[in-house]
Amino acid sequence: MSTHTFHAQRPALTTAPAPAAGTPAAPTPLPAPRTAPSTAGTGAGGAAGGAGVSAHQNAYAHLSLTRTVPKEFVHRASVAEVLLTDWRRTGEDRFTVSAQWPRGHSFFTPADGRHDPLIAAETVRQSGLLLAHTEYGVPLDHSFVMHDFTLAVDPAHLHVGAAPAALTIDITCYDITRRRGRTASLRYTSTLRRDGHILARADVSYTCIPPTVYQRLRGHHTHTTPLPLTAPTAPQTVGRTSPTDVVLTPTPHPHTWQLRTDTRHPVLFDHPVDHIPGMVLLEAARQATTAHLGHPTLPLTLTTTFTNYAELDTPCHLQTHTTTPTTPTHHTTHITCHQNNRPIFHSTITTTTP
How far is Cα 37 from Cα 135, in angstroms, rounded to an integer? Predict the structure, then answer.
């Protein structure tokens, strides 16, 4: 399982601050205020840590197309790691989100003139969290358990241009369940467009868990000490240039690696967590694929099912095998991860050579 948990440090995001004396009135935010959601499309409850403030009340006073959305809505501690810039409702359970990819990123590093396909995965992840908090009333102190994640990208539209890449993401939410008036789980599909062209498609499902339930589920795991940091696999064998960004450690067994967990990493571990985040697991699957094939790879499709939490205090091992190539340049690699004899996740990645 992959869980997103983030505790907001300040509750001011859903209430506009009073202007100081003599301060000019704030300009009208762009775009125009969204249409309030219908009861059928929105769960009850507040978005500011369950404080009872509507997720829509004054939330848009802080937003425009020229700045990122509040970092708390996408579970990031660093403003620099927020990729989304705005959103609007376009229909019942339908939304459009805007995003921007920098020409260079400290971790999702462009290669061969293309953006890293996994920055699309992070964009989709952030979009689902944003809508849960702002449109479905999920409080900020809830945890999100991701069950599956599917992504397909078109490399023709991953090129790094002369300016940051501006994206629009059309999202449809469905299979929505509610408990006690709150959204408990949903699935959403995303279509990412750049300059009118479809860049990627994704499908994700998750469950929203209240803090008290999460504490019961996790128990003592919320206070575990991470394993000592292990030695990284050679960066060039996993498509990386810096050992700091390597999430695998070699083992004596063929096609088998141990997950390397560096909780000091400023992007993969943007804030303290009690388990290994899903984006770390996706990166591990991508790196294991590159190491298995023995040459640089460009992911085209990625399908992952998360089964159990990946704990910080116990070794995790990944194993890989490939199936018969569909074409001479396309390979499908299967990655399985186990910990304490339990399956953690399974990924299937189709790649091409850059």
Answer: 7
Residue 15 clears pLDDT 50, i.e. is over it: no
Task: For residue 97, give the nearest of 125, 77, 116 by alpha carbon.
Answer: 125
Between CA 302 and CA 298 the distance in angstroms is 11
Residue 190 makes CB contacts below 8 A (sequence gap 6+) with: 124, 127, 169, 170, 171, 200, 201, 202, 203, 204
Asked if residue 176 lies in contact with residue 185, where contact means CB atoms within 8 angstroms, the answer is yes
Q: pLDDT digits over 251-303, tens only?
A: 999 999 999 999 999 999 999 999 999 999 999 999 999 999 999 999 999 99
User: Strand, coil or helix: what is 131?
Assistant: helix
Which residue spans within 210-329 are E strands per DSSP? 248-250, 256-259, 298-306, 317-322
Annotate 16-74 with DSSP letters as a single string. Answer: PPPPPTTPPPPPPPSSPPPPPPPGGG---SBSSTTSS-BTTTTGGGG--TTSPPPGGGG
